[in-house]
Design goal:
mainly beta; four-stranded antiparallel β-sheet; globular
Amino acid sequence: MRRATRGALGAIAVGATVLVAPVLTSSPALAHAACGTTVSDKDSRSWPTGADSARERTGSSSVSSTNCTILGVAYSSNVLDYHCYTVGNDGYTWTYLRNDTTGISGWSRDDLLPSNGSLVWCGF
């Protein structure tokens, strides 16, 4: 998994005693995109894919992700417009994208995309 929920330890000195408490950072929780979920473009980046047959699906909703229909396939000659990413139930991050070459929009697993997909969280 490329992105993970992160935490840090913060230390506070009180007299001679040091208290350590977790400090929460703003990171995405595990929240998949149900089949049929679409999102607006939150990421300004586009990429010539370099992807080798990355499937574009209607969502990232199941552990195997195969429950969501394949809408298209991104090939190395295609240009992709990344919109945002979320974390799927399978533990991988997924990017919602528009394939500018084919006009198809869908979800693709980030480890199959150039630069590991979008860097902008969808917010769910």
